[in-house]
Design goal:
Chain A: Pfam families: TctA. The complex is a heterodimer. By secondary structure, chain A is an all-alpha fold. Helices cover 76% and strands 1% of the residues of chain A. Chain A has 22 helices and 2 strands. In chain A, α11 packs antiparallel against α13. Chain B has 2 domains: 67 residues; 58 residues, no CATH class. The chains are: A mainly alpha, B mainly alpha.
Chain lengths: 505, 164
Amino acid sequence: MLEGILIGLSTAFSVTNLLMVVGGCLIGTFIGMLPGLGPMSIIAIMIPVAISIGDPSAALILLAGVYYGAIFGGSTSSILINAPGVASTVATSFDGYPLARQGKAGKALTVAAISSFAGGSIGAVLLMIFAPALASVALLFHSAEYFALMVVGLSAIAAFAGTGQVIKALLMTILGVIMATVGEGALFNMPRFTMGLMDLQSGFGFITLAMAMFALPEALYLVLDPSRSKTEGGTNEIKDLRITKAEAKAITPVIGRQSIQGFLIGVLPGAGATIASFLGYAVERNIAPKEEQEQFGKGSVKGLAAPESANNAACTGSFVPLLTLGIPGSGTTAILLGALIALNVSPGPRLMVDQPEIFWAVIISMYLGNVILLILNLPLIPYIAKILAVPRNFLIPFILFFTLMGAYIGQNNSTELLILVGFGICATVLRFADYPLAPLLIGFILGRMLEDNFSRSMQLYDGISFIYERPMTLGLLVLAVILVVLPSYRARRARARAEGVADGD
Amino acid sequence: MALDRWIAMIILLICVAYGYAAFFTMDDTLAPFMRRNPIWPSTFPKILSIMAIVCALLILLGFEKSSGEPKPSEINYRRLTDYKLGQAIALLGLMVAYALLLRPAGFLLSTVSFLFIGSFILGERKYHIMILASGIAAGVVWYLVDRVLGIFLSPLPVFLANGG
């Protein structure tokens, strides 16, 4: 492990990679601060740039920096203007915005920055311990287990993504996998479902799809509903960034607890930073003493520190399944996986053995990114907050232009732009009807790997028998079924009970 | 019928077509020696199409009630005309125009007009700032993509470019 850390240090501290960390964090913070733009859109827009860098460690470092920066920027806008740019910082605004209203915006930002830093750093240390251990177990996995593991990942994502609408999320996931079967598969050398179109021969472009699923609908939502990007509401003077000793003492145990809890939630597929932050907030409110509980929601520093450390730790945690199993647990890590595949890196347990410099450089750069965010943001916050005043009339055409550019650079083909617009409209309509979009993209990215592993096990076992001959595969598949069935069963039962009560009255 | 069930029906139709292709048309072209293989190119699509059809039917038949009233942060599609629908459609049209004109008109011209018209559609009327911002952005992006990243982007219209 020490050797790995040294390799990581030497890679991460090269001039280019340091620039990547700084650049990524800055870009992420700036864009993440704009209300209405989430980390997935930002990363989708940055991917073409990262891919054309060519060096996988630099690309991943850049994208990870963007990811952190976006989360941090999101918390800044939720504190200052009560407009969370990212779902995972919604819980931050519960206590952050009241603090800002009391004229303590500077203090709130400091608490947020320190908790994010601590959450991210503790997460990075835990990642350093967990990932190698998990990777060594994963090396024993067979393609049958990989297939089953991906099924578990996909069903967990479907189970968590739909707000009580598991079937919709499941349908989206399967649709994503179906889209992945279009084009020429690696195992068969024959084009499938191309409808005779040359442009579909190589399948749908992953960047195009990522843009169409996230960046374009978000931009269209901003156009449709101008109030989403409203920036008024009091970008008040930010002064007095200092926090008192008593406050520091109060938030220290909160940060410690929530970093660990957030990390563990982040490791689970499908859970991610949003759930971690809400859960962290709820847990801290419940275990706080009576008089402090009153303060939650009215500007409690504890209530601010809890979601901030939890969501940053969860972001780091979500890298564990990505780097060790090659299975993304969230939309953001799925996009990162797509970028890695485009760069000819296959994340998984072999990554640590075959390309240790990528693995360790990413972990070290996470730590570095946290330090840089802290240094950059504390003194610069008052100036960075000015970006919140960028007029949307200029902002939206630029976002649209960058999605177009990204799709064009990815494929160098202007038909791709029409596909982008078409899918973008479909995605927006799907979003109107409350269909979750992240499962579709994750299904699309995992689809090809899913089929490859399935085919390989079918060939090895000469049929479907691998499912019941390998107990671990069977166990994982049963788990996947439970994950999907349980929430919809419980929702049905709860609804039935609610209806029964209504009828009885 | 609510929008989500209409969508489920469209997806169902797509999946039926997909399943039809997988079950009835794909295997005909398979070489005889490949038929001995336990897995065919159509095996996985067959499984997928069945699963997708089942899910789409469950939604279409209303086994899963949608959550009822829309969330306040989301857009309520039933009152779509209350929103800036015209602007959104105009911008989408602009994107299509950009896609069609990118090659013939060249990157610089089409990008400057895209950004200019885009902000015009959104109601911006400070023409000098709009020209300046879009001109600088087009120039910088072209330089970065073509020169720094090395991806060819023909900057000028077809009739001015040499073989571009």
